[in-house]
Amino acid sequence: MKVLVPVKRVVDYNVKVRVKADGSGVETANVKMSMNPFDEIAVEEAVRLKEAGTATEIVVVSVGPTQAQETLRTALAMGADRAILVQTDVTTEPLAVAKVLKALVEKEAPGLVILGKQAIDDDCNQTGQMLAALLGWGQGTFASKVVAADGKVAVTREIDGGLETVELKLPAVVTADLRLNEPRYASLPNIMKAKKKPLETVTPDALGVDVTPRLKTLKVTEPAKRQAGIKVPDVATLVDKLKSEARVI
Amino acid sequence: MPILILADHDNATLKPATAHAVSAAAKLGSDIHLLVAGRNAAPVAEQAAKLAGVAKVLLADDAAYEHALAEPVAALLVSIASGYSHVLAAATSVGKNVLPRVAALLDVAMISDITAVVSADTFERPIYAGNAIATVQSSDPVKVVTVRTTAFEAAAAANSAPVESVAAVADPALSSFVSAELSKSERPELTAARIVISGGRGMQSGDNFHLLEVIADKLGAAVGASRAAVDAGFVPNDYQVGQTGKIVAPELYVAVGISGAIQHLAGMKDSKVIVAINKDEEAPIFQVADYGLVADLFKALPELQQAV
Amino acid sequence: MTAAAIPYTPPLKEIRFVLDHLAGMAEVAALPGFEDASPDMVDSILGEAAKIAENILAPLNRIGDVQGANLGADGIARTAEGWGPAWQALVEGGWNGLPFDPTRGGMGLPNLLNTAVQEMWHSANMAFALCPMLTQGAVNAVQLYGSDALKDIYLPKMISGEWTGTMNITEPQAGSDLAATRSRAVPNGDHYLVGGQKIFITYGDHDLTENIVHLVLARLPDAPPGVKGISLFVVPKFLVNPDGSLGARNQVKCVSLEHKLGIHGSPTAVLSFGDEGGATGFLVGEPNRGLEYMFTMMNHARLNVAMQGLSIAERAYQQALAYARDRVQGKPLGWTEGQSKGIVNHPDVRRLLMGMKARIEAMRGILYTAAAAVDVAHHHADEAARGRAALLVDLLTPIAKGWCTETGQQLASDGVQVHGGMGFIEETGAAQHLRDARITTIYEGTTAIQANDLINRKILRDGGATANGLLDEIAALGGELSGHADEALRVTGAELVAAVHEAKQAVAWVLATAKQDPRLPAAASVTLLELMGVVAGGWQLARAAKVAVERLAEGDGDTAFLSAKPLTARFYATHVLPKAAALRATVVNGSASVMALSEEQLFGAA
Ligand SMILES: Cc1cc2nc3c(=O)[nH]c(=O)nc-3n(C[C@H](O)[C@H](O)[C@H](O)COP(=O)(O)OP(=O)(O)OC[C@H]3O[C@@H](n4cnc5c(N)ncnc54)[C@H](O)[C@@H]3O)c2cc1C
Ligand SMILES: Cc1cc2nc3c(=O)[nH]c(=O)nc-3n(C[C@H](O)[C@H](O)[C@H](O)COP(=O)(O)OP(=O)(O)OC[C@H]3O[C@@H](n4cnc5c(N)ncnc54)[C@H](O)[C@@H]3O)c2cc1C
Ligand SMILES: Cc1cc2nc3c(=O)[nH]c(=O)nc-3n(C[C@H](O)[C@H](O)[C@H](O)COP(=O)(O)OP(=O)(O)OC[C@H]3O[C@@H](n4cnc5c(N)ncnc54)[C@H](O)[C@@H]3O)c2cc1C
Predict the structure, then answer these.
(1) So where does FAD get bound (chain B) (predicted)?
(2) B128 and B195 belong to one structural domain
(3) pLDDT tens-digit map of C8-66
(4) Is residue B116 within 8 Å of A205, Cβ to Cβ?
(5) SS3 C582
(6) What is the pTM of this model?
(7) Which of A188, A192, A193, A225 should we substitute to test contact with C (largest number of C Cβ atoms within 10 Å)?
(8) Which residue in A206, B124, C239, C445 is a FRET match for C195, CA 20 to 30 A apart?
(9) Predicted ipTM?
(10) Domain containing A171 — which CATH number?
């Protein structure tokens, strides 16, 4: 079974982003970029499936700027077999990415697509679900365990009240949550080998996909600062405030 | 055109999250229809009908909807979406799972996790883990949106909207439910807990931490401590919150009998809501607390236990 | 108590800047055999090494300090919690083999790149990083001088890190003075029987690997006295069977572990060889040339210990900076609305932090420049180019070892100072850096030994030609910059010219007085070393500033980063370079006073 893993290049999770003064977005120039952490988990899962003999080939894909090649190389160094960069300088929305991925799935015919459950820049949590919809495949989102066998995949999902297991017909889409696995560090020999693995570049146009954004970002602002606190006279008032004002209990 | 909201429930009770989504929808200024898709979910439809602002409840009762699997529920939503300007859901694990699938099937962009409604087509949503807020506008014919529940009031239960049945649509049969493991009884892990209740030297003994534990269990909270409490042997090391202990940022942090030394604050100052209970009104913890209660903890804690 | 680990963020951007613009990564990558070291490969490697430093090694730094290494009842040294898996991560990642021969399992990458990786590992956890450092040193010695048989047996496993290496030089009576070495080796068929006691052996025993390969200095029965009669031997902890499997336990016993001021996590062993007749050892290279071979290892190790000075300073700096931003003590002078009230805005705290930052960048420039020169000296196609690079390495090694370690200590102390009282408290972690830094001026030759080397072998031996050559080059750069349109560059250039002038006078004085009384330059040696370090640091900051200003003029958009370079250089030029005059005065005027008191007077014989 071939596994396709889309990976996104995002601002590193350790970076405290700063909003641009003109409100047009956040500062990304000269900021450390890394693979989206959820995507690292997705790559790791694919590599484990390959090591277990379930997967035969791992293809990683990134939709983004030329620099996303670094992200793809990282995935190759972790154990993916080849990479495809869908090169675009447009800030792609999840729907556009899902359409690009659909076009690639039609070409590559993977048995499973594993994505991260969300990208830590736009925090959308949409792409996997959208891809499954466009392909007419089943979806196992927020996965904390994935067992693939006999044309099916059992996915244990992290849901609000605990865990839930669903079974999907293959081919299917899975999105990775944090507890699915702990991604490995790439070894030095594998980093060096990754350079020699194939990395193909295509454009959304060549795949026949229009990636023009549908949404308009009017502005980006700093979140509100902490309001000055108050003293409450008694426990009853405190509990009332926590319930009705802060809504945390 | 009316607004459609997907209800979140377990076939017996409506999840409170949905009431928050209803308030968000109310800001859009059209009729609100609530879709309850489930199995034997009539009781849920009844509860939904009570939510203020809901004009109509649609009940799709079918075995395919019992576990809110994304594939059949999305198919159902898409089949009725054409009459609506917006499709909403609370940003719960169900809403986040189903709505993007709906959006893609409708070929529209989706707006996740909104924290404010600016106008019928414009919303605020946090990006970069809440370090920035984006205002986004959609020109799609149907707006598909999930709602961050903490940003909107819950709609009151003061209504009796009609309940209408809608037919199930063909189940794409791509997935099936296997099992669920819900509600762990043990207290959550400190750094992952939504609520943390910590005690300091003011607790006076390890036995007195029981006063915190009973409240924590009622709230599903984790129990933490100041270093002074750890050093005094009241509780084990791994309870320590602070510069040299654990760093936590829960929704609610309750500091009881903790003075608020900077080393302690370093570990909890990013909590969303901070409550301090301390008998010294000059204690520095009050400078960071959203709600401060000047009181003897031995009096306040039993009262708190009763009240929550 | 469970102390939260103090985070370490590898300064990848600084490292990359120095690699590219001061050390000449591109030129190194163009040397024969280094084709793989392309810019994107360098990025990938540094990025992954940074993750290991930050996420695996750094969190173990404090644990190692608190738990230390302990000798078990079974005579085996045990490392701290988590160290075994961390070592395993390095082995699985193939990191130990980075600079070594690909035909023996190495990666064949430049020493320069290895240096950048080592910087991060020493910053993350110096006590731990000593183990890969010494193993790499041992590999170097075997690779250069060992027989093919020795190489076949030992190199693959040492390169992979399955086995570690040590350096067994010091004996109770032979520390700085290796002529006093007493350990002996008696020929016995195809091997030797080694006996004697070695002390202070870093990672002399541990539980990280199944075998340890000791490189031991010892005397043959017929050896001439002094340093000309020392040979080098491989003595494995476990003998190795012909098929590569482990055989009998050799006669190497860990007698005890030292209790130390710092680097608690690093086991420092007393090793006893041949208690029951003789440990099996194998001669490396030719008899009586051991010291020469060991110096190969030591020169590698000296530059690495110099790196520890930089690394620990970087770690201390990151911690001090974070504290200074958070800690509030009064409203800083000239504070304006919107500025942070942290002590970082007190001018004196700034002075401390700038002093750390500027010296750290200076050290990085020196060390990476030296590391690149090592690559050129070994790999350049042109013999003359190799020779020039080798001379530069030889000159820079004692300066780097002496100045970077002394400076590292000073900066670790400054880091404590920024923390105020909290700096003195162990939980804060700032104190550990100071304690750990303290060893760096001692092992691999004390600062005095480096200074002796600088004066005797690097200055007097060639009549000052190499030293003056470098100083002339620095003066030329200073002269060029002193006419620059940029004010910070102008100030830097002028101060650099003045400092070089002082250094040249001091060198001239050494050359002149050595013939009169060798004690005079010896008394001035450490001061001269410091003077040379101060000037070399200024040289590197001036180079960095010049590149940065050029890049800005070319339209490079990273203004915040680049415009800091000339300003940092100017800080150094006005705070550190002026010390050159005082140091020169001490060298020239102060040496006679060093030995002026009689020994009786010193002891106050009254
Ligand atoms: C290097 C270093 C690292 C440190 N790291 C940490 C750390 O990680 N975490 C940490 O917490 N601390 C840390 N500290 C310690 C910190 O400085 C404080 O000493 C500690 O937080 C104080 O704990 P406390 O607030 O429980 O105790 P106290 O400061 O003694 O405060 C007790 C509080 O309880 C109140 N109180 C007493 N009785 C009652 C009552 N009956 N009803 C109501 N209120 C009452 C008092 O008014 C007082 O405000 C560190 C200190 C150092 C030097
Ligand atoms: C933690 C630790 C780890 C070590 N690891 C190793 C190891 O792995 N392998 C190993 O072989 N050794 C190791 N050593 C030993 C280390 O290299 C020696 O301690 C060092 O070389 C100094 O020797 P010494 O201790 O005998 O001091 P001494 O030589 O007695 O020096 C004492 C003082 O006299 C000065 N002095 C001595 N001779 C001269 C001179 N000619 N001119 C001017 N000043 C002089 C020194 O500068 C010093 O200030 C380690 C030591 C320590 C503490
Ligand atoms: C072992 C020990 C014993 C002690 N014993 C006692 C004792 O018996 N009694 C007692 O009362 N206290 C005692 N102290 C406290 C000691 O006096 C303080 O630690 C010291 O005054 C520094 O204050 P601080 O720790 O709050 O550091 P801070 O004031 O926070 O200083 C941090 C850094 O900021 C700098 N800084 C702060 N303000 C300024 C400024 N305005 N301008 C320029 N730089 C500034 C400082 O120089 C320092 O580098 C002790 C401390 C220790 C560690």
Answers:
(1) 201, 226-227, 240-244, 257-264, 278
(2) no
(3) 999 999 999 999 999 999 999 999 999 999 998 999 999 999 999 999 999 999 999 99
(4) no
(5) helix
(6) 0.84
(7) A188
(8) C445
(9) 0.91
(10) 3.40.50.620
